[in-house]
Every structure is written in C-alpha cells, then in structure tokens.
UniProtKB/TrEMBL annotation:
Protein name per its UniProtKB record: Uncharacterized protein
Top-level taxon: Bacteria
Organism: Billgrantia gudaonensis
Length: 329
C-alpha cells in the first residue's frame, strides 16, 4: 500500500507573558524542567475535554543537549474509548459499525502535534483532531501545572510570530481593499481553537450558507451527492472596499485598517487574505504571519505521520527563518 500524502502547515509561534509576569527562564527551559520532573509517557498525561488525554509520546534525541532546539511528539486519545470501523469491502446495503476495543494500557490515537522549541519561539505541526495550535497551548499549560512549576509559568499565550516589516507597511500605508478567498469544501470542516466571534467564523458561515443555497437548488439526491463531492472545486471570493476609495470618510478607512490588521492574524489555513494598501502594495496572509505548507507522507499501512520526518521539516523551516533574519525578532 503506497504512503498517502498529507499537506500540513508549520506554524511559527511565540510564547508571550504579561510584561510583569515573565519568568526568569526561557520557555524552552521551562518545558525541559517539566520533562525532567515527568520522565515517562504516562507521567505527562493531561486531560483536555475535546481530546481525552494528551501526553508526550516521543522526545527527539537532541533533547539531551540544552544548546539545541527541543523537539517533541505529542499524542492524544481517550482511554477506554472504542473506535468505529468502516466496512470498505462489505457486500451489503448497510454497514454495521463494529467498534474495536483498544489494547490494554493504550488508547486509540486521535491526534498528533510535533513541536520545535527554542527560547520563547515554537514551530508547531498538528494532525488529526488537533486542527490548530490552541490545543498545544492548553497542553503545555497543563504540563507545567502537572510538573508543579511555579503558577506564573502557566500564564502564557501562544501567539503567531509576525513579520514586523510587513506589518509596519500595513500600518503605515493603510488598507485600500481586502479580498478573502476560500472554497466551499472548507466550509464543512470544523476548526478547533478559533474564536467563534471572529471574522474567520463569519466567513466560514457565509460559505456554508452559499453551500446550502446551491444544494437546495438540486432536487435529485444522487446529483446532490455529486455536487457535495465537488465543493472543493467551487471558490468563494469576497472583496471589501469603501465607496470612494481613499477619499472615503476617515472613520470608514480607519475601520478597514483595523479589520485588515486583525484578519492577517486570524484567517485560518482554509482561507487566504490579500490586502492592497493605499500605496498599491500587496500583502498576503503568509507575508505577515510566518508559516509554511509542507507535503508529508503517512507511514506505510498506518494513518500516522513519521515523527522524524516532521521534525526534519520543522528544522528546515527553523533554518530558513534564521537565514531570513525572521527568527526571534
């Protein structure tokens, strides 16, 4: 069976504390301290309601070297929970679920996260039920508590690291127009850890309403199923620009400027934001929030990513960011 491809996003994040609550040790050292106190996989378990329990499955050999980035593989599953099966070759008009029990002392793995940590900076790649980096933030906070680190060490947020030069261009030149692009298929996918009140969710709901409207126009059930299989072929593009362009009322332009700065941080992987400044420059989502898409392969006959292959991609991205002068700016 050939290894199935998987396209993943590598997120560049920064652990941020309030100004008067910054611990004396770098974030990577805090994680190392927690791992020293919790040496076994079972010791690192933290309960997260949406995932079951989360723990550190593998530690890269470089973890023993404090002068090298710390790399970890995190897994999640629900102990005691059975997993349903699909009768791919069942010759019947109905497929019974036939759930399977997990082996003793194990849980079916529902999600993975792979991290590289250096100083206050993190690179994160997630798979399965972990759709964003919010779960990694929750887990690391719980890990610090489980290791009995000082309470103040858990008062952090993981925030997307940004290209300050591009952001300053956006702030200096202002926003002329914002174009948001996404597919109908993405409207069916649930994002974990995103603010439901943000523009991300608004644009997702808008696409879902468009999807529902198109589906209602098809009366035949089979044709509706065919349409559903092609949602990824239908693009939805929304452009926001004030009437009168740069001569619009000041409050209108200020509102657009604020929205543009929010969107470049907020828009998820399933959408793209293209902002044209009032000076004519173009800034895309990936220009401000530093991330990278990579093509990986799942293990042979196993629905998992290979930890060392993901770590290699994280190390490559880490090296590229350093060469660009974007790391730890």
């Amino acid at each position: 069976m050939p290894r199935r491809p998987a396209t993943k996003t590598l997120h560049y994040l920064r652990a941020v504390y309030n100004e008067n609550q910054v611990p004396p040790d770098p974030f990577a050292d805090l994680v190392r301290q927690a791992l020293q106190r919790l040496p076994n996989v079972g010791d690192t378990k933290v309960g997260i309601s949406s995932l079951g329990v989360v723990g550190i499955r593998q530690r890269h050999p470089d973890c023993e070297h404090p002068d090298r980035p710390l790399m970890l593989a995190i897994g999640a599953g629900a102990p005691g929970e059975r997993i349903g099966t699909f009768g791919a070759d069942v010759e019947a008009d109905h497929d019974d679920d036939l759930p399977e029990d997990p082996p003793e002392d194990r849980a079916f793995k529902l999600a993975d996260a792979f991290v590289l940590i250096e100083g206050q900076e993190l690179l994160v790649c997630t798979d399965g039920a972990m759709r964003g980096y919010a779960s990694v933030e929750k887990y690391l906070r719980g890990l610090f508590n489980r290791a009995n680190l000082a309470p103040a060490t858990s008062a952090f947020e993981l925030q997307p690291a940004s290209n300050q030069e591009k952001r300053q261009t956006l702030e200096r030149e202002g926003v002329k127009e914002i174009t948001i692009k996404g597919t109908m298929f993405a409207a069916t996918q649930e994002l974990e850890g995103q603010d439901p009140a943000g523009f991300t969710e608004f644009f997702r709901r808008f696409r879902k309403r468009c999807q529902d409207y198109l589906a209602e126009e098809i009366e035949d059930d089979q044709e509706r199923e065919v349409l559903a299989s092609h949602w990824g072929d239908i693009n939805v593009t929304t452009t926001i620009m004030p009437k009168g362009g740069t001569r619009a009322e000041g409050v209108v332009l200020s509102s657009l400027d604020d929205a543009g700065l929010d969107m470049v941080d907020e828009i998820p992987d399933d959408s793209e934001v293209v902002i044209t400044t009032r000076s004519g420059n173009t800034i895309r989502t990936g220009d401000v929030v530093l991330k990278k898409k990579v093509r990986l392969l799942r293990k042979e006959q196993q629905n998992d990513l290979d930890a060392f292959e993901v770590w290699d991609e994280l190390k490559t991205f880490h090296r590229e960011l350093r060469q660009r002068g974007a790391w730890q700016r």
